[in-house]
Structures
1.
Amino acid sequence: MLPVKRLRFLALATPDLERQLAYYRDVIGLAEVGRERGRAFLATEAGQLAIVLEEGSPPGLCRLAFDLSPALDAEETARALRDAGLSAERVSDSAPGCPLALRARDGDGRVIELHAGPHFHDNRQPLPGVAPLKLGHVACHAPDPAATAGFYAERLGFRVSDWIEDRFVFLRCSHEHHTVNFTRGPDARMHHLAFELRDAAHMHRACDILGGQKATVLWGPVRHGPGHNVAMYHRDPDGNAIEMFYDLDRMTDEALGFWDPRPWHRDRPQRPKTWVGLPRDVWGLPPSQAFLEMHRLQLPDAS
Ligand SMILES: [Fe+2]
């Protein structure tokens, strides 16, 4: 098993690199930290690479990059790869500051990259736009979410945090409630990606910035049930769904087995569970018709 510790970045294919770059730089508020033919690299204000844009079609997720436990040396990593039954290639051109990564495929054929060692880009100027704290999680469709969850648990060390019925699974690789999610669908395409904000004031500012851009807020702010994050969704220029959130559940101590207590939890203690039926959200209006149409596969019970 290869112990994944965090999400490093997502690579998105786009048919219009300049338009996507302008959006992620000026509206989302990421710093352009590198540029090469057909690719652009964007980092958070804290200097963490978050989004790699790559010219290509169709638009959408083309790679997920994770950080491995730094406790593994090269020999242990090679052994863990063999034990996990993963055939990986070494790549040296993944992104600036990522001199070497292992590239493999998950059970559904998504390209995953495994990185070792921290790297920070030295961008210390305040950024325009929303300027999220970090890239928080990614949700994808999966034909068999239980099988995909099994792959991420057995091969990459993820733990199951919650299920919505038998169709949407939330997985964690750290104290945070989820880093990857999988929802039942006919293929492996992305459902949404999510950026973490600081607090309610930051969410308010994000909504004002999107409103100023005449971007349609498709859903939220709403406090979800699973994860209890306050979330808001809109679309980027390519149509990818983007969530912004804060207040995600945390399990500071795995041995306790419950999420750090919060006053909005209905279960005390709030443990990982299967959520059945509606309403699931703690507060907030249901998703807009535009959100539901964007995720037709989720009808009639989008999350
Ligand atoms: Fe999400």
2.
Amino acid sequence: MEPVRVAVVGTGNIARLHAEALGRLGDEVRLVGAVDVDGARLSAFCDRYDVPARHPDLAGLLEKEQPELVHICTPPGSHHELALACLRAGSNVLVEKPPTLNLAELEELVAAERRYGAALATVFQHRFGTGALRLRAMLDAGVLGRPLVAVCHTTWLRTQDYFDVEWRGRWDTEGGGPTMGHGIHQMDLLCAILGDWTEVSALARQQARRSETEDLSMAHVSFANGAVASVVNSLLSTREESYLRFDFERATVELTHLYGYGDDDWRITPAPEYTDEVLAAWRAGAAGVRSSHQAQFAEVVRSLRAGTPPPVSSVEARRTMRLVAGVYASAFTRRPVGPADLTEASPFHRRMQGDGPRWS
Ligand SMILES: NC(=O)c1ccc[n+]([C@@H]2O[C@H](COP(=O)([O-])OP(=O)(O)OC[C@H]3O[C@@H](n4cnc5c(N)ncnc54)[C@H](O)[C@@H]3O)[C@@H](O)[C@H]2O)c1
């Protein structure tokens, strides 16, 4: 089979990780071209990763290279426009998180997928480690019983100099603070395991950093299956950690890591009466793959070859983005919010900060 023709737009920090992960997929993919508005970065990237075609703008790349898949690795404020151009040209898109600045932009991309027959996927790499796949399979098989309580903590540290990069900490370029930019990874995995959420009550604060956005949010989230989760998104935490905990009827499952996990970062504590059954299923489950861009890219390529929507699909990403919007809407209106409150009529549909943040 011919390799999938991939192009990269935006050749900054995360693009390097994309190029290296694509390289490890071998003959499955070929990196055919790259775009950046910064010529020096573009040249350095193309020289380093042996990319044959370099373009100063996306239109030229789409016309000349006709990639099957475009990885969008630019700051969030440009994702919508670039993804729309790719979909219009019939190229599939894998966009870095967050997929857009708001729900309205995401809905436009969902409509464009249908109209132009190309697919939009979002990078949420933590769904693809074997620990998460094993947990999901055990839950589906009924081994763990009902999910009851969950904890979802993104307690990271970003000092003031992090916000010196011009697109960070601003609503119109990053779309939000740690809720949108950092905790979104953990909240996406929470939703991948627990499914549809029904209500969120939240607060958001500017606790210590100078930025337009929050540097802290906290939320209680209810799910359709009856589970309730406590969520913290912080950039103020000197001992950094990404922590998810799921208390099921028959076991507690915990994940502790920072920016990526392996099998050893998971811990399961079975209820005494279910120990044998739960541990047998845990040991027999999928193993050996770390959460990583490469793990997701392998699934994206597999899906493109099979003609199925590449993961994480826009439908799945929309649920996570709605949760992000729900956190802001609840924090800034100071009342509980459900998905039905986030339709086109809501200011939080068009902008994550709604009509303007009202800090608690
Ligand atoms: N999945 C993850 O774990 C993860 C980690 C870090 C960053 N990210 C995401 O990756 C994206 C990029 O972050 P970064 O840290 O690499 O940013 P960066 O600033 O290092 O790089 C962005 C690059 O895009 C270029 N660019 C900007 N606008 C452009 C346009 N319109 N057309 C072409 N090129 C353009 C810039 O010149 C720059 O080279 C963000 O959405 C960020 O949230 C994801």
